[in-house]
Amino acid sequence: MTFDQLECFIAAVEQNTFFDAAESVNMTQSALSKQIMKLERDLDLPLFDRSGRSAVLTEGGQLFYKEAIALFAQYRQSMLRVQQYREQTRQQLRIGTLPILSQYGLTPLFGEFARQHPQIIMTLDEVEETELMHGLDTGGYDLIIARSSMFSPEKYHIFSLAEDRLAAILPCSHPLAKKESLSLRDLAEEHFILMKPYTSIHQLCMKLFEKSDTRPNILRTARMESIIGAISAGEGVSLLPEKSFQIFSHEDLTAIPIQPAPPLSVVAARKKAAPASTGTARFWNYMMIQTGVPKS
């Protein structure tokens, strides 16, 4: 006995004709009749009396119909529960991020989301820009957290999580260290130690140099920790996000805002072309609410 046979039998009882019953379960009348006859053989019990012009339930068929209704209802309920469980266990959320969460106060949001949504399996990878964008574009990440300059609004959904600004990082003893703001022309004679060329900050700096018609004297590129150490040793100056610099707490260095320069927004981003999974949609709306953006 199969649940397909039970469905066919119930349909045959509840519909006016076997033809109507077959249509209700999307099969031919012949196929439905064969299923019911198989059920009768399995039960060793005639369910329909076919001696007249139309088949009618036998006494045994009337008894079994009540059992079939209960069995099929239990089957459908079990399948629904399995489906719900499957959907819950499939709520995976893969997030890629630049290593910037702590300086923008975003780390606690991830822990709180995980606490509120234990059914969602969240993985969080800290990687650099090139790997981050590749992961988003190839489906390795459901969403990423990075700087706004990396994204085209035509291709990605984005919203801001935090704001920052570009600053010149100088020794406190530098002649320009008391200025409220600096232009790139003010720094034209300086020796620069910049972020690595693949980073969005390096690329932004080069665009600003070009826009200001300034030819920078770039000593080398390095990671942020090395840059700050080199500036502290008097090797040169740099251009860095102000909040990223502040997390290192160097008392002998200072950050002076660069003007003019675009804001350095930290954003969440996901592809417009890819439908959001349940886990992605829940995290997206959660982050929008936590950062004060109207829920989409």
Structural classification: alpha/beta
Radius of gyration: 33 Å
**Major β-sheet profile:** 5 strands, mixed
Number of DSSP E strands: 12
**Overall shape:** rod-shaped
Beta-strand proportion: 15-25%
Mean pLDDT: 91
Count of DSSP H/I helices: 10
Order of helices and strands: HHHEEHEHEHEEEEHEHEHEEH
Q: Give the oligomeric state.
A: single chain
Which residues sit in consecutive blocks of at least 5 with pLDDT less than 50? none
The first-to-last residue Cα distance is: 49 Å
Amount of helix: 40-55%
Output the strand order for the largest sheet. 4-3-5-12-6
Topology:
Elements: H1 3-14, H2 18-24, H3 29-43, E1 48-49, E2 56-57, H4 59-89, E3 92-97, H5 107-116, E4 121-126, H6 129-137, E5 143-147, E6 156-162, E7 166-171, E8 191-195, H7 200-211, E9 217-222, H8 224-232, E10 238-241, H9 242-246, E11 253-257, E12 266-271, H10 278-290
Parallel strand pairs: 3-4, 3-5, 8-9
Antiparallel strand pairs: 1-2, 5-12, 6-12, 7-10, 7-11
Helix pairs in contact: 1-2, 1-3, 1-4, 2-3
Question: What features would you highlight for this structure?
Answer:
296 residues; alpha/beta; three-stranded antiparallel beta sheet; rod-shaped
Plain-language structure description:
With 296 residues, this protein is an alpha/beta fold. Helices cover 42% and strands 20% of the residues. It has ten helices and twelve strands. A five-stranded mixed beta sheet has the order 4-3-5-12-6, sandwiched between helices. The model has no long low-confidence stretch (mean pLDDT 91).
